[in-house]
Structure formats: C-alpha cells, structure tokens
Amino acid sequence: MCGLACGNVTSINVERAVAKMKKDPKIVVVDIRTPGEFVEGHIKGAININMNDKDFAKKLAKLDRKKTYLMHCRSGGRSSASVPVWHRLGFKNVLHLSAGTLGWVKAGQPLVVPKKK
Predict the structure, then answer these.
(1) Least confident of 5-9, 33-37, 71-75
(2) Which residues does 6 contact at the CB level (< 8 Å), separation at least 6?
(3) Is residue 14 situated within a structural domain?
(4) CB-based burial of residue 95 (10 Å sphere; 0-12 exposed, 13-18 middle, 19+ buried)?
(5) Mean pLDDT, range 81-107, rounded to an integer
(6) In this structure, which of 11, 41, 72, 98 has its CB flanked by the most CB atoms within 10 Å?
(7) Tell me, what CATH number does 76's domain have?
C-alpha cells in the first residue's frame, strides 16, 4: 500500500476536506460505495461510481484527470484499495477522505438523504 500518498493521491481528514471544499467549490466528490449505500446518505454534490462494479476503472477513466477529486467510501477500506487505480489512470489531484462517510458523520458533517418516492 502507499501509506499517506501514492502518486497524486493524498489522504486527508474530514476537517481538511471540509476546508478544501470551502476554498475550492469545484472539487468533485466521488463516492465509491454501492448505489444502495449512496442513496442512504452521501456528501452533497457527490457522484457515485461503485468500486465493486466490474467497469469501475472504465467509469473513472471518463472523468477529467486535471480536476481535483475528493474520493471516499464508507470507512476507508475500499477507497484505500482504489488508490492504485486512480494512480494508474493518471489523475493529477485526488484527495482520499480516509475516514469515509462514517468519519464524515462522526465529525458532525451532514449527508444528503434523497427523499423516498
């Protein structure tokens, strides 16, 4: 594993993530949990690309590699495992929210929960 940084992927905590998102509203949040987990609550504005999907790398490859991304999963396991994929695809600036949505909520940050139909 790469530790805190692998290529252009840097692990950050919730407080730093919130500060960076306030400073740069163009940061794209990528939630790599399953669609079922995503609809139960996600960070505002997040896009969902399921790491367990066999086309995960293909879907990531469609993103602009020059943008800044904040990526996460539920608790850090899947997102840590995805770091080599981001690196291999040549992304320039990826922030890894290592605490995941569990850490996000624990730090008092809100999740968006879509209204049930």
Answers:
(1) 5-9
(2) 83, 84, 87
(3) yes
(4) buried
(5) 95
(6) 72
(7) 3.40.250.10
Residue-wise pLDDT for 35-74, tens only, equals 999 999 999 999 999 999 999 999 999 999 999 999 999 9
pTM for this predicted structure: 0.92
Which pLDDT score, from 0 to 100, does residue 7 have?
Answer: 57
Strands 9-12 and 5-6: antiparallel
Instruction: List the structure tokens of 113.
Output: 């929960």
- Annotate 13-49 with b (16+ C-beta within 10 A) or e (fewer): ebeebbeebeeeeebebbbbbbeebbeeebbeebebb
**For residue 16, what are the domain limits?**
5-106
What's the rounded Cα separation, in Å, for the pair 97 and 4? 11
Count CB neighbours of 90 within 10 A.
11
* The token pair that represents 69 in the structure block: 């991304």
